[in-house]
Amino acid sequence: MDPFNCRGLIIRSTEYKEKDRLLSVLTADRGLITICAKGVAKPGSSLGCFSMPYMLCDFVVTISHGYYYLKDASIIESNSKIMDSLEQMTVAAHISSCLMDCTLQSENSKEAYELAVYAYYMLANNKGKYLLIYSAFNWRLLTIAGFTVLYDLDDSLGRSTHKYLLNISGGEGSDVNNRSFNRMLEEPSVKALNYFATCDLKKLFTATADKKTELELRDFTTDYLSMHFEKTYDSLSVLNNL
Description:
Elements: E1 4-16, E2 20-27, E3 31-37, E4 56-64, E5 67-77, H1 86-101, H2 109-125, H3 130-144, H4 156-161, E6 163-169, E7 180-186, H5 187-198, H6 211-229
Parallel strand pairs: 3-5
Antiparallel strand pairs: 1-2, 1-4, 2-3, 4-5, 6-7
């Protein structure tokens, strides 16, 4: 079968045999695919640099017996600055984990791919915004998956107190719909959630917030994500003692 070309993000790179790597690559048109990069761990391998996560690359892929193999590649964006700090690496790993956990259908894989491209690039180049990037990614991914709503800021109680009582629960027919709890959020956080859900994807990570709002968004989006993906997301806990 003839090789094919595709552009994708390396979401995860894992050891396979002694000198090979399995690359989990998120693409716009094929969704998440696994590519075997044979021999890339050998000293002097011409493709050795393509086994690092978080890079956006153009790949040339061959198919043999139903499996994908890396033939050639070129780097579009290395996002190497993610490795500059523990905070950036931790958020990048969280993003990868969410993308691996999320079941992407053909109709939403393109938007998830574009979200990931912007998220890794902004994370690599904006160390100080790692918490806001984390929350914005969480909420937009949940929106792509169909799990979020727009919150009403015209609520009379909310207008008078500038606080809003939001519910976190599983959707109708969900295995988690018997788990539900409420959370009181300040008005800036609720506005941010609505912005994350509806803004142009190119502007998603340009938002700003004060520290209190960043922490509130982190906690709320983490709990919401954990509820709907039925998994405990606690990767940021390693940063608590820094």
